[in-house]
Amino acid sequence: MDDYRGRALPVPTVPVDQLEGACPAAAGFIRLRYGRDASLADAKATEWMKVTEAQDGIRQFPLRGLEQGTVYHFASESSAHFGSEPGTVVRGRFRTAPPADAPAPVRFCVMACQGYPDRGHPDGHGIYPAMQALEPDFACLTGDLVYYDNDMPRANSPQLARYHWERMFSLPRLREFCRQNPTYWLKDDHDTLDNDSWPGRKMGELTFEQGQRIFRDQAPMNDSPAFRTVRHGRDLQIWMTEGRDWRSPNKQPDGADKTILGPEQKAWLMKTLRESDATWKILVTPTPYVGPDRPTGKSDNHANTGFQHEGDELRNWFAEHLGDSFFIICGDRHWQYHSVHPKAGLHEFSVGAASDQHAGGSPGHNAEYHRFHRVGGGFLSVQVKQKDGASHITFRHHDTTGAVRYEFQKQRTI
């Protein structure tokens, strides 16, 4: 079997469900009980819903009518037979966002780029217990959550693609974190198909379009649009963009028709950013706008010359309309940085890779851009709090143990 470049792809010599980390699903039924009391004495329950092997035993439950700024506890209950006693119960908790007019303190974490063989510990990446120690209100998982093309066995079929999700998100540290914290998921190239991919591509039997559907099965997004914005109190609103579904081929000549976001998403982003009255506005994006990126070998993001036209358009628009209330957080790059664009003045924070073993690839420190530059694994935390009539925002780069390696603060009078 070959990929689109004509290279031979290795094929597993044993059944997929016998590979290391495989967690094959079984058909059955599942429901969710949830309430504000930790004992679940006040719990509501969803209907029992059928799950199948075809979708990895996954079922997503949209919950309506939840109170804002409230901690909820839940139990996911599964059974092999409809109406029988649950055979497995998984407990967890989450906090809903505070009202848009509430001057509420908020802390959240952002991570990206986690390789399975590079996790650094058999139970999973060290960033997860380190992020949990901060007790975040939520976390953004910002793409490349699995590596279909780099981490063996290469996902040259839908079954192997699903196996990549099984082995990664069955790791104890990841399970423990995700059951206790609300998470927003974005995808990038490696968890859609392969490196720098765009629609219409194929890797073995796995198509780009199948990769899109499999991500939707795995990510807790319900029917949410791929691009979305969420408000957390008076002072914080975040935007999350989709960088693969509507992009032009990387090799297309640059110009007004070449795009990463597509016209609908771009119009939505500008409209909603202008309408927002949040004190701080943050764009969380799988790929960078500022960089700088490597001068050769990359042509798939707004920091590259391959998409310079749209990159300049958006950087200039952000600078003109949003001023110093706006920041960008990006994944994709395997090194941490805080960059300021020398012309547009935009601040961008790269969260870096999820482990030290996965870090690398930086073109090096660039004094024209960088206020901070570090080749190492870790994550980013953002804290918003109110004090003395002002709103304070703090960005912190952490290493894989949670130690702070860099801090940037700003405040605005309210």
Could you spell the SSE succession in H and E letters? EEEEEEHEHHEEEHEEHEHEEEEEEE
- Rounded Rg: 21 Å
The gross shape turns out to be globular
If you average the pLDDT, what whole number results?
95
Strand content: 25-35%
Please give the oligomerization state of what you see: single chain
Overall number of structural domains: 2
Q: Distance N terminus to C terminus?
A: 61 Å
The counted number of beta strands is 20
CATH architecture of the largest domain: 4-Layer Sandwich
CATH superfamily of the largest domain: Alkaline phosphatase D (PhoD)
By helix and strand content, what is the structural category?
A: alpha+beta
Q: Strand sequence of the main sheet, in spatial order?
A: 11-12-13-14-16-15-17
Main sheet attributes: strand count, strand direction, barrel closure: 7 strands, mixed
Which segments are poorly predicted (pLDDT under 50) over 5 or more consecutive residues?
1-6
The CATH first-level class of the largest domain comes to Alpha Beta
Architecture overview:
The protein is α+β, with helices and mostly antiparallel strands and 414 residues long. The protein folds into 2 domains: 16-94, Immunoglobulin-like (Sandwich), CATH 2.60.40; 98-413, Alkaline phosphatase D (PhoD) (Purple Acid Phosphatase, chain A, domain 2), CATH 3.60.21.70. The chain is built from 6 helices and 20 strands. The chain has a 7-stranded mixed sheet with strand order 11-12-13-14-16-15-17, with helices on one face. Strand 9 (202-203) and strand 10 (206-207) form a beta hairpin. Helix 2 (158-169) packs parallel to helix 4. The longest helix has 15 residues, at 308-322. The termini are far apart.
